[in-house]
Here is the input.
Amino acid sequence: MSQRSCLIAAIAFFCVLVAIGAVSDTANALSAVFYDKLLHFTAYALISTLVYAGLRGAPAARALRTLAFIFVLGCIDEMIQLALPYRNPNWLDWKFDMLAALTCVGMLMLLHPVITARHALRIERINYRPARKP
Here is the structure.
């Protein structure tokens, strides 16, 4: 998956989440089946992973930009809930969004050297051409 498609997938997934939450009683029905904070954690963990994968640069810079992106998306999510009469914004949800982002970004930063080494090895294998015999 290319970097650009990762960012597009993250934004599309966020839009789907907002759309599902905007439908009356859908969010309440999901929360009745699954713990609400677990839903937030899982959804924002996926979004964080997609955003981190979609950014370029050093791991620390990617991590900070991912956290900022999730900060904004979480705020937008809660503000949309504030605007809907049948939804209640809960800043604890936003905290779980940020916890998911911190957890994922931390894991991705730890795994970054392993992932890049495997990618470099794969590129090296693809570009390898044995010397021709005269």
Summary: The radius of gyration is 19 Å. The helical segments are 3-22, 26-33, 36-54, 59-83, 91-127.
